[in-house]
Amino acid sequence: MLSEFQETLLQSVQAFQSTQLVKNKYENVLQHLDSGILLFDSEGVLTFINVQMAKLLELPRQSLIGCNLLQLMRHPYLSRFKQKKIARIYRETIFHRRKYHELIDEYGRHWLISVVYGDQMEGDFLLSVKDVSDYKQIEQTAYQNDKLAMLGKISAAIAHEIRNPLTAIRGFIQLLRPHLIQLGKDEYARIILMEIDRANDIIHEFLNSSKPTAPQKTIVSVSSLLKDAMLLTESEALMIGCEMRLHQQTEDLYVSIDVKQIKQVILNIIKNAMDAIHEVSVIHYAGMIELGIKQEGDRVNISIQDNGNGMDKTLLGKLFDPFFTTKEQGTGLGLSVSYRIIRNHGGTISVDSMKGEGTVFVVSLPLTRQA
């Protein structure tokens, strides 16, 4: 009888140990997932948080276990930004019954948040957070490529059809100009010719945005490239009370590029920065454009940062779209052309901005050896 009891007890201990091993194994897997995980019980108390989620919240794990949502929100080390995001997720989950959310954090990363609750969770709430920035980048690149391909087809179909009548109109206006001068209406002829030339410039930009010429590459110093761009824009910057600075590493870095095309990209971004600074009309305001050079592995990052008006996050995803512009006189082709040029050089171009705090563009290009 005693031996049977001991055997039953041994089996129970072994079963418990086996269950505990399985539990520890699965908990270890959850701890090291690349997704952040929070688990609240039916009473709203946090019973589990993995390492990744603690890193995202920038809080120690042990200080969170046993907290309810209100206590989590009031944690002394939780940032104000994260408090707002958690409150938004709670509101949309509980009141709007949404189980999936997307948000952008203070560092510009995209996160997909999913919430699981109901009968299958026995009253518990499981919240998982995954970084989908790379997927968003791939999606945006594919979307941009589709737009540029469509733009190429449109430009091939209509560009010449528009240019031909403009050429004829310009020729006839020039023939009529002596008669207009006699009538004292030379100003009319000048305005017509100026507008025709402007229309031709827009068509030229339109064609370049759809199919830029192949890069004619030479090896150049990045610092000399930026110094040339600063010389070309320095006088215009001084006119609006803007200072320009160049920050670079001690070692000079070299890239193999089409100098004319890349300089066009740099000048376009600097011009946009000056426009953003010019929009700010505050007493004692000092405009600043800072150009930086930094090596990242086998690439060089060229940053152009301003302290201008900045942009809302909603506009950032549209900046490189053809014909999208926030300027009254803009064509919306400058940045889409820049995007294509940088991509043709095997590089990337990105932007980050915040309303009232300025904008920073980063152009990344492959490094090369000096000739």
UniProtKB/TrEMBL annotation:
Pfam families: HATPase_c, HisKA, PAS_7. Keywords: ATP-binding, Kinase, Nucleotide-binding, Phosphoprotein, Transferase, Two-component regulatory system. It catalyses: ATP + protein L-histidine = ADP + protein N-phospho-L-histidine. Residues 157-369 form the Histidine kinase domain. Its EC number is 2.7.13.3. This is histidine kinase. It is an enzyme of class 2 (transferase). SUPFAM superfamilies: ATPase domain of HSP90 chaperone/DNA topoisomerase II/histidine kinase, Homodimeric domain of signal transducing histidine kinase, PYP-like sensor domain (PAS domain). Residues 22-76 form the PAS domain. InterPro entries: HATPase_C_sf (IPR036890), HATPase_dom (IPR003594), His_kinase_dom (IPR005467), HisK_dim/P_dom (IPR003661), HisK_dim/P_sf (IPR036097), PAS (IPR000014), PAS-like_dom_sf (IPR035965), Sig_transdc_His_kin-like_C (IPR004358).
